[in-house]
């Protein structure tokens, strides 16, 4: 049951959850994936609260729930995400119903150890993207075409530091027709991609010559795969053998398989190429602001983690090269 301030349309905790999630989709234009995550977080809050209505929870309840999740082994980052969802829900609920307090407002997630993102070495990154991916030994046309697609995708990921969702969302050129408006596209003549990233923030990122060459090699093969009844495939830069826009999951699987064939020691995923891009550009230029802009980070604090990677790289060089850094042999 809700408080006396409850709007008529919100008669239960579930009504409130549904209304908030709908507002995220329709008003704030968040992705369906993000909203689905918020739904899971609030369903877990309902489970933890048992018979207590969500609007009746206090900060004592929320603190106990956080302790329970932490004791069960949940990662502090996951707990922090849940708290963020809960805070957002209660803030909205207060605006809609006059709820007097936000019970999640002052609750903090457990501290987590800082972990550095995993990046490939320069040699491994170059080898990963420059070796033409081998799909099979059959030499079939569709396998050769997939190899060209893979190399173009991998080169572009490393060249421009794109997220995998940004890569798969790229159109061949900006389109505005039949209610469709391109959010991201490539311009090979200008050697740049225009990307709509997190929070609907647009950015323009340069493309390296190796990536441009790989993409130009892929385009004739792409033409042979087109199915003109697949409107989204016709617009998409990267498509599968059925002429449909390629999905992030397929990119992940193809990159993982290619890295395994090359004998890479790490579990390689698309975001690792983004980390490698940022780390290697920072090592070469030292320009943190430029890297922030190319990655599309809202805060430079998110980019500063790569300075730790850069220092790690320099420390390894020092340890290997400086005579006073080498350990003396035991006598």
Describe this structure in words.
- With about 325 residues, the protein is mainly alpha-helical.
- It is built from 14 helices and five strands.
- A hairpin with a 4-residue loop joins strand 3 and strand 4.
- Helix 1 packs antiparallel against helix 2, helix 5 packs antiparallel against helix 6 and helix 6 packs across helix 11.
- The N terminus is likely disordered.
Main beta sheet, described? 3 strands, antiparallel
Which structural class matches the secondary elements? mainly alpha
Which sequence of SSEs, written as H and E, runs from N to C? HHHHHHHEEEEEHHHHHHH
Based on DSSP secondary structure assignment, what is the total number of beta strands?
Answer: 5
| Order of strands, widest sheet | 3-4-5
Portion of residues in beta strands equals: 5-15%
Give the low-confidence spans.
1-8, 136-140
Report the helical percentage.
40-55%
Specify Rg, calculated over alpha carbons: 24 Å
**Total of DSSP H or I helical runs spanning 4+ residues:** 14
Distance between the termini: 77 Å
| Overall pLDDT level | 82
Principal-axis shape equals globular
Main traits of this protein?
three-stranded antiparallel sheet, single chain, 331 residues, 5% strand, two-stranded antiparallel ribbon
Short synopsis of the structure:
The protein has helices at residues 13-26, 32-49, 59-71, 76-97, 122-130, 141-160, 164-168, 209-225, 231-235, 248-261, 270-285, 288-295, 300-303, 305-321; strands at 176-177, 180-181, 185-187, 192-196, 202-206. It is mainly alpha-helical and 331 residues long.
């Amino acid at each position: 049951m809700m408080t006396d301030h409850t709007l008529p349309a919100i008669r239960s905790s579930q009504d409130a959850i549904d209304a908030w999630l709908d507002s995220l989709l329709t008003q704030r234009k968040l992705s369906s994936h993000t909203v689905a995550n918020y739904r899971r977080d609030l369903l877990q809050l309902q489970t933890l609260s048992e018979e207590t209505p969500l609007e009746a929870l206090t900060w004592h309840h929320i603190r106990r729930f956080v302790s329970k999740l932490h004791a069960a082994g949940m990662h502090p980052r996951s707990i922090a995400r849940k708290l963020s969802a809960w805070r957002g829900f209660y803030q909205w609920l207060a605006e809609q119903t006059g709820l007097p307090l936000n019970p999640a407002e002052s609750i903090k997630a457990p501290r987590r150890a800082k972990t550095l993102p995993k990046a490939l070495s320069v040699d491994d990154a170059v080898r990963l993207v420059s070796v033409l991916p081998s799909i099979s030994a059959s030499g079939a046309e569709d396998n050769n075409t997939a190899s060209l697609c893979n190399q173009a995708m991998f080169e572009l990921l490393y060249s421009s530091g794109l997220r995998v969702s940004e890569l798969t969302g790229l159109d061949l050129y900006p389109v505005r027709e039949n209610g469709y408006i391109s959010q991201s596209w490539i311009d090979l003549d200008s050697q740049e991609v225009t990307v709509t990233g997190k929070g609907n923030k647009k950015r323009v990122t340069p493309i390296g010559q190796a990536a441009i060459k790989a993409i130009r090699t892929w385009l004739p093969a792409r033409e042979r795969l087109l199915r003109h009844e697949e409107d989204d495939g016709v617009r998409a830069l990267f498509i599968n053998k059925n002429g449909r826009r390629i999905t992030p999951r397929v990119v992940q699987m193809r990159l993982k398989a290619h890295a395994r064939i090359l004998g890479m020691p790490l579990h390689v995923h698309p975001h690792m190429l983004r980390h490698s891009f940022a780390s290697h550009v920072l090592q070469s230029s030292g320009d943190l602001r430029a890297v922030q802009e190319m990655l599309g980070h809202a805060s430079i604090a998110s980019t500063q983690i790569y300075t730790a990677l850069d220092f790690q790289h320099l420390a390894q060089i020092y340890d290997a090269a400086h005579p006073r850094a080498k350990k003396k042999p035991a006598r």
